[in-house]
């Protein structure tokens, strides 16, 4: 029987590539997404579509109202999504988001008896997000190994972030080698309800550069042929 | 200006005592509760009542559907609440619950620029819950100090669990010395909608023993004069 893994999926380019990598490594994958009050809700449909296309064992969407605590352009419609590069930690940063997502993944991993959690964080492109750094991931893993019944009983938990040192171009090449169809994925912070990307936000700009870097025709569906 | 703290409150005896302690230490308190699909929903009303009576700056309730991942008698009505002492980690354990709650508190602390989070875990009574141990709390604090923008900018986060080594009787004496009225609190895992306790579940049994140990008349409102 193959080993179980919980894979955090957003329906975007990075997490879809991570899912393809986990599957190629022989893991029995359980995908987890969050309905956390994000503006870009078409990503939830992409997460569900990608999970189905890649034949995961189960896909769960946990509802969680992060908008209650505020503090991010991604959950607060009164803060504009920046359409140009910004200095420092961007306003699209959601306070403690990866910690919250990993914590719920930890709980599901315990219920499933899965000892691995995959996530698609990337230190190169998102250097402004503190919870995308390798030292943060290592620290969460150490905490997770003290937090659960499974850990107390000796089943060591592993948090894998295989994209952490890759550029967007390298991620795309890795995914294409594993057969990922990126036209199924949505990265945009303000995608239309049909999943069409704006081509302007941080996430779109990084993605566009990634396809250029990889030398691959960009299959993303943009608004107004942007 | 006093220092801000986020205080996790469940409306129960322990967290209400912690809130009184945080206030007595001069913190400007922001209380946080979770609507996580728990059966004992009257605790949310108690959390709100206690927050109001103790004049906190703000009380937030974050909705979070932990029932989606399952695995606990507290969120799954198909698992019975045990009415006798059990061996090992009880079925009322909610996978990764404290980790999830602390993670969201971490996010709110960042939004508020609060550098302290208080929670009412207790290693003596709940020795079966892995996420109530001092080494777990220390490890979460270390992780939290790598996770946020505030931490990156040098504001050290502190997680305080002042009840961790106290017995239930000691907690009650501490709270009474600070003027807590325990008739306002609800600890029961299966309290009635009016907040009446069952007197039978783990949480009720520990609380009853606590009042006996403290030598104090138990002000809890029980069902059918239980």
Percent of residues of chain A in beta strands? 5-15%
Question: Averaged pLDDT of chain A, please?
Answer: 86
Task: Determine the N-to-C terminus distance of chain A.
Answer: 47 Å
The beta-strand count of chain A equals: 5
Give the C-alpha Rg of chain A.
17 Å
Give the strand order of the largest sheet of chain A, numbering strands 1, 2, ... along the chain.
Answer: 3-2-1-4-5
Oligomer: homodimer
What composes the largest sheet of chain A?
A: 5 strands, parallel
CATH homologous superfamily designation of chain A = HUPs
In terms of per-residue confidence, which ranges of chain A show pLDDT below 50 for 5 or more consecutive residues? none
The secondary structure category of chain A is alpha/beta
Order of helices and strands of chain A: EHEHEHEHHEHH
* CATH class term of chain A: Alpha Beta
| CATH fold descriptor of chain A | Rossmann fold
The total number of structural domains of chain A is 1
The geometry of chain A reads as globular
Greatest interface and its participating residue counts: A-B, 44 and 44 residues
Number of helices of chain A: 7
CATH architecture tag of chain A: 3-Layer(aba) Sandwich
Structural notes for this entry:
Two copies of one chain form a homodimer. Chain A is an alpha/beta fold. Chain A contains seven helices and five strands; from the N terminus they run E-H-E-H-E-H-E-H-H-E-H-H. Chain A has helices at residues 13-24, 42-53, 97-112, 134-147, 149-152, 168-177, 202-214, and strands spanning 4-8, 28-35, 58-63, 116-118, 158-160. The first copy, chain A, has a five-stranded parallel beta sheet with strand order 3-2-1-4-5, sandwiched between helices. In chain A, helix 1 packs across helix 6 (168-177) and helix 6 packs across helix 7 (202-214). The longest helix of chain A has 16 residues, at 97-112. Chain A is globular and about 55 Å long. The A-B interface holds A 60-66, 68-71, 89, 93-100, 102-104, 106-108, 110-111, 130-131, 133, 135-136, 139-140, 142-144, 146-149, 151-152 and B 60-66, 68-71, 89, 93-100, 102-104, 106-108, 110-111, 130-131, 133, 135-136, 139-140, 142-144, 146-149, 151-152.
